[in-house]
Prior knowledge:
Strand order of the largest sheet: 11-12-10-13-14-9-15
Oligomer: single chain
Strand content: 15-25%
CATH architecture of the largest domain: 3-Layer(aba) Sandwich
Mean pLDDT: 86
Helix content: 25-40%
Number of domains: 4
Number of helices: 21
Bound molecules: adenosine-5'-diphosphate, magnesium ion
Amino acid sequence: MTVALTDSVSTLPGVGPKRVDALAALGITDIASLLTYYPFRYNDMRVKNLNEIQDQEQVTLKGVVAAPPTIARFGRKKTRLNFRLLIDHDVVPVTFFNQPWLQKQITVEEPIMVYGRFDANRKQLNGMKILASGNADPMASVYPSNSGIRQKTIQQLVQAAWDQYHDEITDLIPAPIATHYRLLDRQQMIHDMHFPETLAAAQAARRSAKFEEFFLFQMQLQQLKHQDKTQSGVPIAYDNEQVTALTQSLPYELTGAQKRVVNEICADMKRPFHMNRLLQGDVGSGKTVVAAIVMYAAITAGFQAALMAPTEILAEQHANNLQALFEGFPVNIVILTGSTKPAVRKEILPRIESGELNLIIGTHALIQDTVQYHKLGLVVIDEQHRFGVGQRQALREKGDNPDVLAMTATPIPRTLAITSYGEMDISVIDELPAGRKPVSTYWIKSTQIDSAIQFVTGQLQAGHQAYVVTPLIEESEAVDMKNAEAIYERFSQYFAPKYQVGLLHGRMKNEEKESVMAAFKNQEFQVLVATTVIEVGVDVKNATVMFIYDADHFGLSQLHQLRGRVGRSDQQSYCILIADPKNKNGVQRMQVMTQTNDGFVLSQKDLELRGAGDVLGKKQSGVPDFKVGDPVADLTMLSVAQQEAKQLSDQKDWAQQPENNALADYMKQKERTTYLFD
Ligand code: ADP
Ligand code: MG
């Protein structure tokens, strides 16, 4: 039987339908995606000598159990298990708290390996776990996991995939480039990412993995760009009068910046070339109405338009807003998401195919194979950094190479924009609608929370609503949820019976999330406790407070996004950052937040502070989500990869060269799939 990296993970032993789903939720579908599902850190489990251990370091000690373990009980459920470990001539006391069952594994005069935190002053070990002797992994990989699948399982699956498939791994980066940048060959790289012998080996592998990721990403961009130049698009001959009628029906006057970008986009759509344009505008700058106007322009020219949003909440919100905005205009709106019922889908799809429905709003469900369009002229992608290039590509391939307008609320410093969106033209809305009051931002320490909550109460008394964003723990959605629930309980009790509190977290079903958001919008409760799922786009005008726990764990751009959820009316709004930053960089970031409301200034600052080498959260830069590379911290590598990818794809026949076979195959395969970098 032949095996290939494109084999489904279900070919691995022990992977049934349930695991397939859990893995898919992590973006793992085939062997290739499993083998490139990299650990985000390593636990150094190598056995160390006592004299080379730092105080409080986590280490593995190996010795012989010198005396039988004893267990002391205290409190209601607490236990302390003690024993002595003989290492050469030293005796090290070991303590395990609240793991009495370990006693069985500790036998006098037997060798044992214990992992824990070492107290160098007292020369004792605070035990964390007992390692089976003989098979202790020198450097244990730690993977991002979710509730559906355990860390251990991921480790085993990666091992199994490696054992069965490592011979299938071929080099993707052309040899001259790999040599020039001293990259590891792909087999070694993947091996050392998962099973490094030393930290240095892991770092070397990561450097190569980053380069590969950036390079492949840039190759995709280059291909898109190439298509733009070679495929002609359809000219969209819109009706000026009808479009003007729509803008005149709006309850407000467009800002100068909105008018300018509408003109830019319309002019571009009219041309017989393919449009590929990025619309940048700070939160609240009014991108949606710009999208509505240009989509309507396409409709007046007899085309369909599609609007793709990253979440169902957003798709729903767009659908509701646009429904109202297009009242009385010949626009037939439909919403299509993952939770659209099969019966409804069945009824809708033919009406999309016939062209009767001309404005299709949804999530990535819009790019499924079963959705056929009649005459798709314009595709708008909201919060576009949430989508991978693959998905952008797939939507483009729907219909007859429609024009694409991608929108983002994350202002991106120029250098970064060029490397990440090099293939696009850019329009910028650099002006907020008149009458907006800048959000007042305060930074407080966690000891001052009580007075901050009193402040929130004042806002509630004035009839306003508040968001409370709970701490972010990157490693696990489950912990995020627990935190959110605890804070929800606390606020519920505090405000009862006068004000009600709602809860929103990532583990809820989409319908649940939507109904919570709808209820908040309808003022059925006043305080919404949420994890960062509210981050993008949600619009509740009556909310005037954004209360953010552990604010220093978020990146500046993400904080700015969160802050943008308030200040959406003429009421004064407030953003309260709770943070006890542990270093100067954290302090600076909190200060910057209180000093400026300008997204571009913040993103530039983010770049500078991150350039200083501090490692921040990942999900904030507004550029595509990379798995290993960090487009801000590794900007130089990103631009080098861009140059190399450009040089290669500018050679017309690169794909025909035998030495580029593997890369060409890979690119072709990625054209057909949609999950790269998602
Ligand atoms: P974003 O750019 O963050 O997506 P939205 O499109 O959600 O912003 O717009 C934010 C709010 O501003 C919406 O409630 C919208 O109705 C309103 N808005 C948009 N343009 C204007 C304008 N020119 N004047 C006044 N309000 C506007
Ligand atoms: Mg928006």
